[in-house]
Specification:
One of its GO terms (cellular component) is membrane. It is found in: Membrane. It comes from Acanthamoeba castellanii (strain ATCC 30010 / Neff). This is Transmembrane 9 superfamily member. Keywords: Membrane, Signal, Transmembrane, Transmembrane helix. This protein is α+β, with helices and mostly antiparallel strands. Among the domains are: 175 residues, no CATH class; 191 residues, no CATH class. Helix content is 53%, strand content 15%. It contains 16 helices and twelve strands. Strands 2, 3, 4, 7 and 8 form a five-stranded antiparallel beta sheet that branches. Strands 6, 9, 10, 11 and 12 form a five-stranded mixed beta sheet that branches. The two termini are 24 Å apart. It binds 2-acetamido-2-deoxy-beta-D-glucopyranose (NAG). The site of 2-acetamido-2-deoxy-beta-D-glucopyranose (NAG) has 6 residues, from strand 10 and strand 11.
Amino acid sequence: MKDQKLLWVGLVFVALAVVGFIFIDFTPSGWAHEHKYEDGEEVYLWMNKVGPFPNPQETYPYYSLPFCHPDKLIHSDTEGLGEALVGYDLIKSMVEIFFKRDIERKPICSKSLTKSEYEEFREAILEQYWYQMYLDDLPVWGMVGESYEDDAGEKKVFIYTHQKFSLSWNGDRVIEVNLTSENPVVLEAGSPLQFTFSVNWQETSTSFDDRFRKYLDKSFFEHQIHWFSIFNSFMMVIFLVGLVSLILMRTLKRDYARFGKLDDEDADRDEDVGDESGWKQIKGDVFRSPPRLLLFSALVGTGHQLVILVFCLLCLAALGTYYAQRGTVVTAFIVCYALTSFIAGYGGGGYYARNGGKKWIKCMFVTASFLPGIAFSIAFMLNTIALSYGSLNYIPLGTLIAVLAIWSCISLPLTLVGTVVGKNWNGTPEKVRINQVPRQIPEKRWYLQPWVHILLGGVLPFGSIFIEMYFIFTSFYKYYYVYGFMLLVYVILIIVTVCVTIVSTYFLLNSEDYRWQWTSFLSAASTAGYVFLYSVYYFYMKTKMSGFFQTVFYFGYMAMFCLGLATLCGAIGFIGTSMFVRRIYTMIKGD
Ligand SMILES: *[C@@H]1O[C@H](CO)[C@@H](O)[C@H](O)[C@H]1NC(C)=O
C-alpha cells in the first residue's frame, strides 16, 4: 500500500524530470545557431581554455598566455548554467574563417616577446600546455609548442606559429574540423614571432548527425572487456540472487518450523525447542527506531531521491546525446535534482514520522540541505583555489547565485511539500510491539560485529561496478557516451547491493543484534569507500596528474561523487533490507 503510493509519486516525478530535461534541451545554448551557413558567412572560432595536457581540470583562459589578442575580448553569450559550472569561457578568436572559403597563409599578428612573456611561454610549453577551441560547437585541440633535449642535454623550446585548419562541409553545414600546428620556431625573448593560419575546405558525404562520431572512441568503450565485465557482473547477480533465495528460503523455513509458528497445524508442536535463539528473539526490538533518527531519515530520504534521479538521468542519457553539448550533464543533474526533491522529503519525512519523530521541520531542512550543503562547501573551497590560480574552473558569482536560487526556490519548497505529504500519507507508525527496555545485545565473535558487516558489505557491489568506474574515470580524457552500459551496471549494482545487505542483515539479526538500520545503510554505503580508494589508485597509477591544483580538484570532485554514491547505495541497501525485515517479522506476528 505504502509502496504503491511511493511508486505513483515516483512516476509523477519521472514525468517532471522528463519535462525538465526537455526544457534544458531547448535552452538557447543548444539552439543559438542552427548550425547552418551561407557561402562566405563567417564561422566563428571560439577560444576556450589552455592548460597542461596531463591535468584535465587545471585550465586557464586562453588569453592568460601572452598570445596576441584582440583589443576587446568578445565573449560568447550563449553560455548555459552547466557550461559556467564546468568551466567554459568562449572568447572569439582573431582567426576569421568563412564558410567554404579557402585561405592561403594569412598573418594573424606578429609579436616580439618581452622577457616575462618569454618565461611564461617557456614554462607553459615545458608543462605541455595545450588549448581547446570550438568551431560551430565542435571541439578543436592544439599544442602550444614542443620541447626536447638536444645531445648536449640542453632544453630546446619551440612554439608553433602556424595553424592549419582543414574543414569539411556537407550542404550548408560544417561537418569536421582538423587543426594541424606547424612551423615551430625557437622561443626567444625579443625576436618577433609571426603567427599565421590557413584554411582549407573540402566536401564530404558524412551527415550532420554523424559528425560527432569521430570524438567517440568506439574501440575503447565497446571493447570486449566492457562486455566481459557486464557478463561477469550478471553472473554474479544470478549467483547472489540464487544464494539469497536458497539460504533464506531454507533457513527461514527451518527457523519457522523450529519456532513452530508458521502454520496453525504447527501450533501444537513442541513449544520449547531447546535453543530458542536467533532473529526471532529480538522481535520486540527490531522495529525500535534507529539512533540519530533525524540524520538517518534525512539520509534515507535523500537516498530515495538519488535512486530515482540517477535512474531518470541514465535513461535520458542513454536515449539522448549528452556528450554533444557542453555542460548538459551538469545542468540536467542540477535541474532534475531540484525537481526530484519532493521524493527526498516524502521518503525522509515519512520515515521520520513513522518512527515517532516530532521535529519534522528540522528534518525537512536537514534533508534538503545535507547533500547540497556538503557539495556546496567543497565547491566553495575549490572555487577559492581556482580564483587564486586564475583558473577557468572558477565559478562566477552569478552562476553560484543561480544555483542557490534553484535550490531555495525549487528544491527547498518541494522538499517541504514532500515532507508534509510524506508525514501525513506515509507517516502512520506501524502497529508493532516494542519492548520498553532495550534488550541487551549478547557478546559475540568479532566477525559478527556490525563494523565487520560494514567493512565487507561494499566488496561485492564494488566488484560489480569497478570496471565501469574505470570507464567513467577515463571521461576526464575521453567523451563518455555509453550510458546504456551504465544503466545496465546501475541495475546490477542495485540488485547486488540489496542481496548482500539482506544476507548480512540476516546474520546480524540472527546473532540477536537489532541495530540493523544503520548497519545495513552503512554496509551498502561502504561501496563508495572502495570507489574512493580505487580513485586514489587510479590517480597515482593511471594518470600523470600532478600539482596541488589538479590534486585538490580531482579529490574534491571524487569526494562529492563518492558521497552521493554512498547515500545512494546506503539507501538501496536499507530499502531492500527493511522490506525483508518487515516481511520476516510480520510472518511471526501471530503469537
Ligand atoms: C581530419 O583528419 C582525419 C584523420 O587524420 C582524416 O581522416 C580526415 O579526412 C581529416 N578531415 C579533413 C577535413 O581534413
